[in-house]
Specification:
Number of helices: 5
Keywords: Mitochondrion, Ribonucleoprotein, Ribosomal protein, Transit peptide
Strand order of the largest sheet: 1-2-10-9-6-11
Helix content: 10-25%
Biased composition (Polar residues): 169-178
Mean pLDDT: 90
CATH architecture of the domain at 31-144 and 194-277: Beta Barrel
GO molecular function, one term: structural constituent of ribosome
Region (Disordered): 1-20, 168-198
Order of helices and strands: HEEEEHEEEHEEEEHHE
GO biological process, one term: translation
CATH superfamily of the domain at 31-144 and 194-277: Translation factors
Length: 295
């Protein structure tokens, strides 16, 4: 069953009147997903665009963290675990932790900083409907390792002339330091070295489709990392959290959330919410029709 509903949080919240409402000052938890690969989709105007498919694997809440810092401020976070694993390959300490939370042993455990009003009950199973089609997310992953690379590949150096006057130095780094002053190479100098294999964040990816039956999240664009790697998905800090607060302060209430999004599941999108909604929800195209003249 296909549906082109821009927002699904209203229906989910109406079924549970006791659930708190999302505000621009709220920061929700993120989820742990696996990058399944890339594909392509077409909007209603026939325009083709690339998407990355992310899948949740029994992502559950295992703890709520509250810590008092030295300056007496409080740190709040939700601990999330995903991807079931056999108990015999899990350490005794983690088995006791999962047993206390009432969830099966997991492969990956991460925590997401939140605001005090966004704690999620322990044992809650998160669903793909945690993200609304039309909103923006940040995806954190380890980039693909490229090994030891030269300056042209690693730092996009132009290289030296490949014609006259340069002898077997077309791809060299060139000068790396001065003579007696300073007599050394400055720290941070861009040189050849190991490339990739680092934690990277791809920001402001649009959620274009959500499949709650298979727990799939389709985001527009590419995501770092290899296929089947675990990634962290959260509300975009710039285009969601910061922009919502700024527009709220300016009184631009119609721009607090992206176009077509009326509300967000709060404190989280759960399996119970997904049962009351269509299995597949697609966001409407953000671009205008190329066949209608502009006014």
């Amino acid at each position: 069953m296909h549906s082109t509903v821009a927002n699904h949080a209203t229906a989910s919240l109406s079924t549970s009147p006791t659930v708190a409402k999302w505000t621009p000052n709220s920061i929700r938890t993120g989820v742990i997903a696996r990058k399944r690969g890339m594909s392509a989709m077409w909007d209603e105007h026939g325009a083709r665009f690339p998407v990355t498919v992310l899948q949740l694997e029994n992502c559950q809440v295992t703890a709520n963290v509250t810590t008092v810092r030295r300056d007496e401020s409080e740190y709040h976070a939700v601990q999330v675990a995903a991807s079931d694993r056999p108990a015999k390959t899990t350490t005794q300490q983690m088995r006791g932790h999962f047993r206390k939370a009432g969830v099966p042993p997991k492969r990956v455990v991460k925590e997401f900083p939140i605001t005090p009003d966004a704690h999620v009950p322990i044992g809650t199973t998160l669903s793909a409907i945690h993200f609304v089609p039309g909103q923006f997310v940040d995806v954190i992953a380890n980039s693909i390792g490229k090994g030891f690379q030269g300056t042209m590949k690693r730092w996009n150096f132009k290289g030296l002339r490949a014609s006259h006057g340069v002898s077997v130095s077309h791809r060299s780094a060139g000068s790396t330091g001065a003579h007696q002053d300073p007599g050394r190479i400055w720290p941070g100098k861009k040189m050849a070295g190991r490339m990739g294999g680092k934690r990277t964040t791809t920001q402001n990816l649009a959620v274009v489709r959500v499949d709650s039956a298979l727990d799939l999240i389709f985001v527009r664009g590419c995501v770092s990392g290899i296929d089947d790697a675990h990634v962290l998905v959260r509300d975009a800090k710039k285009k969601m959290t910061s922009l919502s607060r700024a527009n709220q302060a300016k009184g631009l209430y119609e721009k607090v959330l992206p176009k077509g999004v009326d509300d967000l599941p709060f404190p989280a999108g759960t399996k119970e919410m997904a049962e009351a909604l269509p299995p597949i929800i697609v966001a409407p195209s953000q671009r205008s029709s190329p066949f209608i003249p502009r006014e």
